[in-house]
Amino acid sequence: MDFLRSVDPETALIIDQELNRLETTIDLIASENYTWPAVLEASGSILTNKYAEGYPGKRYYGGCVYIDEVENLAKQRCAQLFNAEHVNVQPHSGSQANMGVYFAALKPGDTILGMDLAAGGHLTHGYPVNFSGTFYTRVNYGVNRDTECLDYDEIQKLAEQHKPKMIVCGASAYSQIIDFKKFAEIAASIDAFLLADIAHIAGPIAAKLHPSPIEHADFVSSTTHKTLRGPRGGLIMCKAPYAQQIDKAIMPGIQGGPLMQQIGAKAVAFAYALKPDFIEYQKQILENANTMAEAFIALGYRIVSGSTKNHLMVIDLRSQNCTGKEVEELLGTIGISANRNCIPFDPQKPFVTSGIRLGTPAITTRGFKKQETETVVQIIHEAIQHKNDPHYLTKLGQQVHDLCAQFPIYPELVQ
Ligand SMILES: Cc1ncc(COP(=O)(O)O)c(C=O)c1O
Fold it and tell me: Is residue 3 a part of any domain in this protein?
C-alpha cells in the first residue's frame, strides 16, 4: 500500500478507512469472510495484466505460458478438494457460474425449479427480475410451513407437475442439511438436470462436514469468497461428459477474458483449503454457529427451522417486537454488521422483514470461539432490550470495539 499511498492518497485513504471498519466492527453477514493475506497478494498481482480468452493450451492470445500454469494449478487443486471430474475456475462470481450452467444446459424459455428467494433461495434460482426468471420459465419451491425445512414430497410434486428441465438446489439462508441425494432422485424421476449451488456451504463440504453433491448433481456451482474464505469469485464443477459444454458456455458464451489475478488467488485459497487446519477451522465455524443459536434460544428467541447445522441462522424477531430492518440498523449503530432477512411466510414486506440472518465465518476467521460468540449474542440481546437508550447503546458499542481490538484481522496491513 505504500506505493498506492504516494500516487493516489485519495483512494488509499478510502481503503485504509475500510480496513479500519473491518478491524473495529463485528461481521455477522453470513456470506462474508476475511481472506488470507497471501490470497490478497495474488489477487493484487501482475496476473491482472493478461488477456487469456480461452482455456489452458487453447488461448486466443499469445504469452499465456504462466497463465496456463496458474489456471491448471487452480483447477487441479479444486478438483482434488471436491473430488470433481471437471472444474471451470473462470466464472467472475457465483451469479456468472449459475448463468454459465443454465447457458450450457438450457434453451431460453425452458423451465427451472429452484428455491424461492423469500424462503432462503438466491436471486439466480429463478427470481422474476433476475436473468434466471426473465430468460427461463421459473417455478419455485419453498419450505414446509410447520417444520420450515425443505419438503421433498412437495418438491417431487412440483417437479411432476411442471416438468422442469433443471432443478436447482442450494440456498442463501437455510440452516439445515440439504439432501442432495434426494434432489438427484427427484431430478432423475422427471429426467431433469440437477444443479447444486453450494456457494454458502462450500467450506463445510470441502471439509466433509456437510454431505457433498458431487456424485449426485450434474453440475455444482459455487462462490469462492464465503465459507471457503478465498477471493471474490465463482466456479463450476461437473461430470466429465458436460465439460466441453460448460467451458463453451463460460467462454465464449457469457464471459470474455478471465480475471487471471482472481484465478491465481483461487489457486492459493484451494491450497489453504487442502490443509488439515482448514477442517479444524470449518469445525469451529459450525461450532460457533451452534453456540450462537443455542444462546439465542436460551434468551427466548426463535431460530427459523429450530436450529442450525451449518454456518448461519435466521432469527425470528417477532417475539422482540422488532423487524429485521430495525435490528439491522440498530446493530449498525454499535458496530455489528448483519442483514435483514425474510422468515418463511413472512408477514412483513421484503424490505422490512421479520428476521435477521447471522453467520459465523468472519468471526471465526478473526479467532472468536465459544466465549466470544456468547458475548456477541448477549450484546445483540442487550441492544434490542435497550434500543431506545442511546447511552446504553454507546456502552455496547465500546464493548464491540474492545472485543474487536483483542482479535485483529490483518495486523500486518494496519499502519
Ligand atoms: C446460493 C448463492 N448462489 C449464488 C450467489 C451469487 O454469488 P455472487 O454474489 O458472487 O454473484 C450467492 C450470493 O450470495 C448465493 O448465496
Answer: no
